[in-house]
């Protein structure tokens, strides 16, 4: 018999039997659920919104909520300085239509180095970081600089570009670091300096005017007497009873001053010379992405000045290396001069979107396309038997250039206060392949004697560039064949 000690045995307590009940009775469970619902509501409507800045707007005395249609999506500004990441997220996003134009590039390139290598730069434009991809070829830039460092002139510059696109492939300026004479007022970079006498590069202007205005062919015969490279009064006669007869192409190839001086005075005149100099871009701002000095061609007033301007025996008619390359490119491109460019594309660093892409841009026409053949022959003769014969030895002897058009013009003149100026402008082109078209300008001021000429540097840079392109094509063709 079980004893009763005044309380219900464990198995008969109100919480039920140990083996039959799973928790409190139904009434207790309902209270617990209601309590949990109340806590959940409190957290969802009060605690959490207060952390998110989503507290309900205050009410007026009449308990009508204050309507704030102008409230921005972001929180109110505070005294806390935001991190850089937050600032970029809220204010640096470009509009969908944002883009840079050609006219914006000079401002962008202000912070760029003047000594271009061709590798991409990260520059700042309107407080934004931009990745600038250049058209320059690092290999060509290194090669041009190595030539200058080997020959060590007082100053020098190299410009290579594609005359049919305007893309500059190499742009370098040289100043001899070990020569005390280099510490002068001569402005650098040299490739934009237009205080350098044009010398016989001006004969390109005269020859073009003679072909286009006078109708002279490259075989037209002229006469001169005396030294080829002087310009004396007795040489500047309209009718010479005695002298040496020579074709226009030969006179151009050998750069014979009295022939061009006489033709300037008695056949072309000051106005035609001045007009064609302007056709080639003298006295005109070059639309380049970097500041370039304006090349100068003065209007000649006397017969002697006309002869000097026509032959290039002038110290006041000056040109920049960039302009010299454009002049050679005008011959190569049958009279058309395109706007020179050094930037292929610009990428916004934050959005990784392209905001600028280069395109060909027409600048001016120097002469009519139908007059290209005689001018090309004259330029070619300079490299075949003229003043740049030795510089083009490897081009002439290579079968790979048999169908190419090539040539140029040399020029030498002493620059007051600086020494001898040695010029070369020229081109090497395949008419069927835009990529294998290149024009150049090379200048050395006071180069060491017998240690290289600008014509050799120019010819070698163009030759090696085209050979490299051809080898790349051959490799690609072999890879395709193996696949």
In short:
With 483 residues, the chain is an alpha+beta fold. It has helices at residues 26-52, 84-91, 105-108, 138-151, 203-212, 248-254, 257-279, 303-311, 321-332, 372-384, 393-397, 454-482, and strands at 121-125, 128-134, 155-161, 168-175, 196-197, 221-224, 244-247, 318-319, 336-338, 343-348, 354-357, 362-365, 405-415, 419-429, 437-445. Strands 4-3-15-14-13 form a five-stranded antiparallel β-sheet, with helices on both faces. Strands 1-2-10-11 form a four-stranded antiparallel β-sheet.
* Largest sheet strand order: 4-3-15-14-13
Instruction: Look at the helices and sheets and give the structural class.
Output: alpha+beta
Strand content bin: 15-25%
CATH class call of the largest domain: Alpha Beta
Integer-rounded radius of gyration:
39 Å
List the total number of helices: 12
Sheet with most strands = 5 strands, antiparallel
The tally of domains stands at 2
- Termini Cα gap: 102 Å
User: Overall pLDDT, averaged?
Assistant: 84
Examine the coordinates and then state which fold CATH places here, giving the name of the CATH topology of the largest domain: Beta-lactamase
Number of strands: 15
CATH architecture level-2 label of the largest domain: 3-Layer(aba) Sandwich
The CATH superfamily of the largest domain appears as DD-peptidase/beta-lactamase superfamily
Folded structure, characterized:
The protein is an alpha+beta fold and 483 residues long. The chain has two domains: 43 residues; 324 residues, Beta-lactamase, CATH 3.40.710. 33% of the residues lie in helices and 18% in strands. A hairpin with a 5-residue loop joins strand 10 and strand 11. Helix 5 crosses helix 7 and helix 7 packs across helix 8. The longest helix has 29 residues. It is elongated.
């Amino acid at each position: 018999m079980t004893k009763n000690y005044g309380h219900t045995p464990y198995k008969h307590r109100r919480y039920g039997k140990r083996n039959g009940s799973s928790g409190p009775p139904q009434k207790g469970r309902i209270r617990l659920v209601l309590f949990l619902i109340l806590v959940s509501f409190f957290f969802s409507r009060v605690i959490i919104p207060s952390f998110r800045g989503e507290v309900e707007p205050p009410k007026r005395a009449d308990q009508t909520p204050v309507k704030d249609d102008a409230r921005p999506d972001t929180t109110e500004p505070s005294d806390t300085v935001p991190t850089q990441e937050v600032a970029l997220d809220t204010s640096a996003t470009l509009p969908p239509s944002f883009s840079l134009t050609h006219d914006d590039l000079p401002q962008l390139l202000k912070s760029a180095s003047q000594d271009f290598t061709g590798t991409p730069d990260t520059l700042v434009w309107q407080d934004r970081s931009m990745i600038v991809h250049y058209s320059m070829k690092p290999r060509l830039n290194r090669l041009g600089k190595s030539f200058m460092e080997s020959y060590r002139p007082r100053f020098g510059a190299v410009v290579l570009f594609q005359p049919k696109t305007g893309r500059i492939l190499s742009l370098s300026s040289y100043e001899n670091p070990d020569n005390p004479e280099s510490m002068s007022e001569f402005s650098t970079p040299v490739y934009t300096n237009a205080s350098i006498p044009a010398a016989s590069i001006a004969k390109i202007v005269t020859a073009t005017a003679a072909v286009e205005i006078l109708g002279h062919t490259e075989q037209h015969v002229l006469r001169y007497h005396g030294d080829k490279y002087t310009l004396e009064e007795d040489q500047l006669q309209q009718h010479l009873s005695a002298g040496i007869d020579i074709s226009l192409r030969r006179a151009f190839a050998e750069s014979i001053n009295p022939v061009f001086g006489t033709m300037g005075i008695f056949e072309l005149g000051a106005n035609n010379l001045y007009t064609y100099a302007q056709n080639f871009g003298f006295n005109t701002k070059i639309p380049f992405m970097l500041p370039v000095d304006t090349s100068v061609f003065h209007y000649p007033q006397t017969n002697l000045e006309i002869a000097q301007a026509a032959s290039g025996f002038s110290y006041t008619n000056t040109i920049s290396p960039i302009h010299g390359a454009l002049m050679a490119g005008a011959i190569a491109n049958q009279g058309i001069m395109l706007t020179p460019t050094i930037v292929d594309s610009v990428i916004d660093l934050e959005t990784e979107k392209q905001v600028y892409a280069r395109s060909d841009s027409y600048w001016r026409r120097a002469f009519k396309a139908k007059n290209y053949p005689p001018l090309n022959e004259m330029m070619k003769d300079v490299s075949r038997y003229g003043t740049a014969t030795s510089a083009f030895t490897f081009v002439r002897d290579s079968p790979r250039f048999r169908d190419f058009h090539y040539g140029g013009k040399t020029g030498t003149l002493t620059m007051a206060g600086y020494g001898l100026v040695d010029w070369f402008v020229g081109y090497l082109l395949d008419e069927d392949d835009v990529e294998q078209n290149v024009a150049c300008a090379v200048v050395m001021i006071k180069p060491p004697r017998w240690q290289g000429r600008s014509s050799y540097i120019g010819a070698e840079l163009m030759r090696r560039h085209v050979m490299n392109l051809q080898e790349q094509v051959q490799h690609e063709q072999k890879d395709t064949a193996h696949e």
